[in-house]
Write a sequence for this structure.
């Protein structure tokens, strides 16, 4: 009898505890805030910032980075989009202040020619040296002509193996 | 002999490039604003909010613009050096209080000393963006014509003061 009562009490306690545990989740639950006020602006902003470097965390784009610097840039770019600035004007605004380094796609300039054409140059050098190497090797291999006696001897040897 | 020398030479060239790369600091992004006029601004003073400093007010003198904030840890490293420089009277230092709270900023100056002729408030960081600020502290040397001549990214050090900043200031002060 006593054991049964204990079971009842503990069951009651567990249910009370469960209800208590649920209260905070009810209190804190809130409607999710919309990420952006204007989806069109946000879309354009993301397209622009995808190719821009965050100067604080340099291997992240401004679109990806959560650094304060990137937050400011995104805010600035959103505002410029609302002011009807073109993508080029916005990118130029950043380049004027932070230099070409903000661009993940460096522009073609005299100082970046090596950057743009270096890989092709290396490929051409490699290809030419491969060709000369192959040509030289071909010249080094000499055809050895066999006399008739040697020829039959060689054939005999080959036939012997087959058997 | 040649077949060993050529790869060796190629390796040495590559190693030399990599060695130079090790000494470069990717954080030091060269500013496109060097030798260009300082951006136009009009900002309120930190201590007297109704007063305004504009970018043309300092035409005719060489001055330093030091970007600082009370939340910036490495600003504390350079601060004693700035206080000392201000005491020497070589050059007026103007502070750009970047994205900070007015009261905490003023407390910070009270605690660590105030080297600034005037501190101006850039609460939302917009003027900072115009100056290409991306890592506080930053220090700009601006000449008599209002042209940015040098940008120090990160804290000023005793070394950078002696070797770069002070010699450049003295040279710029000699110019008409």
């Amino acid at each position: 009898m006593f054991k049964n009562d204990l079971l009842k009490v503990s069951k009651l306690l567990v249910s009370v505890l469960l209800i208590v545990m649920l209260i905070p989740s009810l209190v804190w639950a809130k409607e999710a805030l919309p990420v952006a006020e204007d989806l069109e602006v946000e879309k354009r902003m993301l397209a622009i910032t995808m190719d821009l470097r965050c100067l604080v965390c340099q291997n992240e784009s401004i679109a990806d980075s959560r650094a304060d610097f990137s937050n400011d840039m995104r805010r600035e770019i959103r505002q410029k989009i609302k002011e009807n600035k073109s993508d080029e004007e916005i990118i130029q605004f950043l380049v004027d202040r932070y230099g070409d380094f903000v661009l993940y796609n460096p522009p073609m300039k005299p100082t970046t020619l090596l950057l743009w054409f270096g890989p092709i140059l290396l490929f051409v050098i490699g290809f030419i040296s491969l060709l000369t190497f192959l040509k030289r090797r071909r010249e080094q291999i000499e055809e050895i002509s066999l006399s008739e006696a040697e020829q039959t001897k060689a054939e005999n040897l080959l036939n012997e193996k087959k058997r | 002999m040649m077949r060993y020398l050529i790869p060796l030479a190629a390796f040495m060239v590559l190693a030399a490039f990599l060695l130079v790369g090790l000494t470069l600091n990717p954080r030091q992004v060269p500013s496109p604003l060097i030798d260009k006029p300082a951006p136009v601004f009009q900002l309120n003073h930190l201590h007297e909010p109704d007063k305004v400093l504009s970018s043309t007010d300092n035409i005719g003198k060489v001055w330093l613009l030091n970007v600082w904030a009370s939340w910036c840890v490495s600003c504390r490293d350079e601060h004693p050096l700035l206080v000392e420089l201000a005491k020497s009277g070589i050059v007026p230092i103007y502070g750009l209080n970047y994205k900070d709270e007015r009261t905490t900023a003023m407390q910070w100056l009270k605690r660590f000393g105030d080297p600034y002729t005037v501190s101006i408030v850039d609460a939302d960081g917009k003027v900072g963006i115009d100056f290409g600020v991306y890592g506080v502290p930053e220090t700009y040397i601006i000449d008599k014509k209002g042209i940015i001549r040098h940008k120090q990214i990160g804290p000023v050090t005793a070394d950078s003061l002696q070797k770069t900043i002070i010699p450049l200031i003295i040279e710029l002060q000699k110019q008409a």
